[in-house]
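Slack export, channel: ligand-projects

TW: morning all. Re-posting the request from yesterday since it got buried. We need the structure predicted with the small molecule present, not the apo form. The ligand is pyridoxal-5'-phosphate; the SMILES is in the block with the sequence. No rush, but it would help planning for next week.
GE: picking it up
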Amino acid sequence: MAEVVFMKPIPFFNLTRQYSAHKTEFDRAYRLVMKHGYFTLGPQVAAFESQLASYTGVKYGIGVGSGTDAITLALRAIGVRPGDEVIVPANAYPTMFAVALTGARIRLVDCKDDGNLDSNKLPDVLTTKTKAVVAVHLYGNPADIEGIAHVLKAKKSKAAILEDAAQAHGAEIQMTNDKWQMTNGTQKRKIKTPAWRRVGGIGDIGIFSFYPTKNVGAFGDGGLIVTNNEQTMLHLHRLRMYGEVERYKSIEISGVSRLDELQAAFLRVKLSHLEEWNKRRRAIAQTYIDELRNVGDIRFVSGDTPTSRSNYHLFVIRTASRDKLKNYLGDQGIGIGIHYPVPVHTTPAFRSLGYVAGDFPMAEKLSREVLSLPMFPELTREEVRRVIQAVRTFYTTAT
Ligand SMILES: *Cc1c(COP(=O)(O)O)cnc(C)c1O
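GE: finished. pasting the full token output, ligand included:
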């Protein structure tokens, strides 16, 4: 009788392995906060804010309740008011909601095949009312910030660039020796020598999310805004709590969005491991690339370019047989993800924008073809090998 081999499922993502591997550090962080008895916007938050800011190469970090809040508040802090126009790439599902909450009028622009905003299409949507362009570093692939900055400059636009680095902790761009500078006056910086710079700190303002699955993820929710501008930083301190300049002295109306001490303490532990974890993700990505190149019609969406380094938040491939491959891998007990299955402009929530299916061909094509393979630092070599084997088997037998 043939031996029945029980194959353990391979998770798309798993956080308990990370906790087990670093239990002592996390437990120490927990006890420290409990002992202090200080639970929001305290010493752990302040320390984490300055650590992530300096990691990103900027002066100030402002911790808030989520990545979504970080986007909404960042836009408010750089002066986006209801009715102003904000440009957003058409496939950035979570980003859209955060931008819409400012009351701004969203103008979508299609993406390129790496999932990021196509700066060649930017002139089509840029107007004198454009207050900001949101450059989303989707999947951890750096967006073309310089390309966007060039278009803004050529069109004499004063629009600010907000970097949505929610998925891109530690991803890098090599800046060219080109004297472009941010144009909206909140931040002026001349780049003199080509240098690798971490995303989030390149545009006028940047945001990070600490949703649990992100490369730096909390055991809960959290977000952070980075900026070099002192006034913007002070404004964000008000915006995250009742518009207060000091306790009970409110000068504008705002809600509450705070980062808590426990999460900040855990996030400090995670930040200290980010480089080693990103290295491990990079090694897994390289194995996928080496072993799946020329398999079926697979193309890689995640990856580096000569001037950018992904943090491999997700490992995204494209295939015309996406739905079949998805079902096949599911049957094999392999966890997969789809980011994102629905073009956000076709959802009922954004019907009022007036867009219809067909308006953003690349974003729509990607929504039908993308598939994310398991990717997290604690994925074992054996698991990676099994994922590769299953994908290869699919193309040799199931298609
Ligand atoms: C996760 C994410 C957000 C939202 O962050 P939350 O912390 O979940 O609110 C925004 N933009 C992008 C690109 C994201 O991936």
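GE: first-pass observations. Residues 66-68, 92, 94-95, 136, 164, 166-167, 209, 211, 221, 223 surround pyridoxal-5'-phosphate (CB under 6 Å). Residues 16-271 form a domain with the Aspartate Aminotransferase; domain 2 fold (CATH 3.40.640.10).
TW: perfect, thank you
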